[in-house]
Amino acid sequence: MPRTVAIDGPAGAGKSTIGALVAERLGYLFLDTGAMYRAVALAAMRRGIDPDDGEKLSDLVTTVRIMIGPPTKQDGRAYTVLLDGNDVTWEIRSADIDRIVSQVARVSGVRDAMVEQQRSLAGTGRVVMVGRDIGTVVLPDAERKIFLTASAGERARRREEELASRGERRPRHELLHEILRRDQLDTERPVSPLRAADDAIVVPTDGLAVREALDKVLAAIQRA
Length: 224
Ligand code: DC
What we know:
By secondary structure, the protein is an alpha/beta fold. It has 9 helices and 8 strands.
């Protein structure tokens, strides 16, 4: 079995869902790095920092404490996120955070701090880490690299379902617009843009149920 598994891909490709299941199956630690950028975005929002103010955001990451650990409640969460000791697991999933997180994640000072923390969390191995730049930047030596994809339409549909399951209704065309905007910000940023590592196995998930996508990813991990 590989020591580390990197799973990257665009928003809504199923990284968190599949990553958590892969980790469970292998008995590995699951680390969703998107949650860390979301926690920084929440800290910025609470302090009234403009998501385009790179200097203030770079200062901010030196003062906040972000921790991700096993679930502390049985409310459907895959992990618990603490910001300065407070549980923000659900707050970082709000539409307000969706809107600003890609801007916050563009800032190199923010990325440097997050990447350092992510590498130290992966240090002991037996970890499944999901994000945008895990296979390319954070863990370029990961033994298995998966790049999950799905069409933007499919990803908007999944997001609509996910929000509906939590009682939030949003029109699909709005979600599609946001997904396309985030894709653009994530792929066109100069620092660590979203792309598949040269040695990643690309797994398209359009039209696949969660279990089918999981089987494909597990097969790719075992085959490589
Ligand atoms: O996977 P997610 O939607 O929770 O990620 C939130 C944002 O964080 C996403 O717009 C891009 C950014 N991100 C990143 O730049 N690098 C990562 N490794 C993970 C997420």
